[in-house]
Design brief:
By secondary structure, this protein is an alpha+beta fold. The chain contains 13 helices and 14 strands. Helix 9 (203-223) packs antiparallel against helix 10 (245-272). The longest helix is centred in the last third of the chain and has 28 residues, at 245-272.
Length: 371
């Protein structure tokens, strides 16, 4: 985080506190701004003791895959039963007993997972885990309210590989050639006229443009249960695991609706700033793919392969010629319930390059919404 971003964050925290933002709003706003500034923050937890006859304290939990709000949890007494045992094995208890203020474990670099909480974090794909205790001054202590506990977790593996792939790699699934056959909804999108924009815009505007539109797509996909596998120039390849195909297709459609709306909002902001704008082209398909480590002995890639991946890329290529910003395969349409299926409009059958049989393609109605 650079100095400018740090000063902006400090200013926001000060203003938010003065105008009376709730603890949940403060937590979520702080964490979002930390992540937006480039810190690979995956999750955070802040705990405060309270003066309450039943609850010992309140916890605020934030996750990067649900960035708009912090979950609020009240917890009971930690001085009896299983709760007491769990508390005594926590890094917080260790810091209180030792008088320390900080424990950090760089789990991806081989630091020991010497508390159960660290082992659990490692198994969930966390690569860097920081635990802090901030003690109050003596005159500010009220009963057991004497400090603030917090944990902050980063996960570079998920940031660079995608959430699910990052978790799989961190759990040890790194053998070359080992791939799992899964059913998945495939999302493949890119930007309209990107080549023309890149040819006619100053070079220093291109990466911010890609970041702006990628943020829209990634947020929409993650917000509806999908996982982004690849950012390929202006293109994005994502999957929605399809244990239940109808639910996965509905999730992908909801992500598409959100992305459309967010692109409109983004374009308004960029146009007002005199920056180039564009639109999103999207193809949605469903099928079986092989998901795993593929590549050479010196360079592996955790990705998906199979005919369905080729088909979704061919469907996306058709979007320009048929002048539709969202194209949906027949197999995707068939996986939807009948009510939602009726809200798709057939645009005809097309021969897709490299695909043996012509495919019927669909697009949503103009006012399509996920209710």
């Amino acid at each position: 985080m650079n100095e400018t971003a740090f000063n902006e964050l400090a200013g926001w925290v000060t203003e938010a506190g003065l105008i009376g933002r709730t603890e949940s709003e403060l937590m979520a706003g702080f964490c979002r701004r930390i992540a937006d500034a480039g810190v690979p923050l995956a999750r955070a937890l802040v705990i405060l003791d309270t003066l309450h006859p039943i609850y010992e304290g309140r916890a605020f939990r934030w996750r990067a895959d649900a960035p708009e709000a912090a979950e609020v949890l009240d917890y009971g007494r930690t001085n009896e039963g299983e709760a007491a045992e769990s508390w005594r094995r926590s890094p917080f208890f260790h810091l209180l007993q030792s008088g320390g203020t900080e424990i950090r474990r760089r789990l991806a670099a081989g630091d020991p997972a010497d508390f159960p909480a660290f082992a659990q974090a490692r198994d969930e794909g966390v690569t860097d885990h920081l635990v802090l205790v901030h003690r109050f001054a003596a005159e500010s202590v009220i009963g057991e309210m004497d400090c603030v506990y917090s944990t902050w977790s980063g996960t570079l593996a998920e940031t660079y590989l995608g959430r699910d792939a990052g978790r799989r790699v961190m759990s040890g699934r790194i053998v070359r050639g080992v791939a799992e056959k899964i059913g998945a909804v495939l999302w493949y999108s890119d930007l309209h006229g990107y080549t023309n924009i890149s040819d006619n815009s100053p070079p220093e505007q291109i990466i911010p443009l890609l970041n702006d539109y990628a943020d829209v797509v990634v947020s929409a996909v993650h917000g509806h249960g999908g996982d982004v596998l690849k950012l390929i120039g202006d293109g994005t390849l994502a999957i929605f695991p399809a244990d239940n195909r109808e639910e996965a297709c509905l999730g992908a459609l909801a992500a598409a609706v959100r992305a459309r709306k967010d692109v409109v909002e983004l374009n308004g902001k960029r146009a007002a700033a005199g920056l180039p704008t564009t639109q999103l082209y999207l193809a949605l398909h469903v099928g079986d793919v092989f998901y795993g480590n593929i590549g050479s002995k010196d360079r592996l890639d955790f990705t998906v392969i199979g005919p369905a991946v080729n088909e979704v890329s061919r469907i996306l290529a058709m979007s320009r010629s048929v002048e539709q910003d969202v194209l949906i395969s027949a197999s995707f349409a068939d996986a939807l319930g009948s009510a939602m299926r009726r809200r798709l409009v057939s645009i005809g059958r097309f021969a897709l390059r490299g695909v043996a049989q012509p495919q019927e393609l669909f697009t949503p109605e103009p006012d399509f919404e996920i209710l």
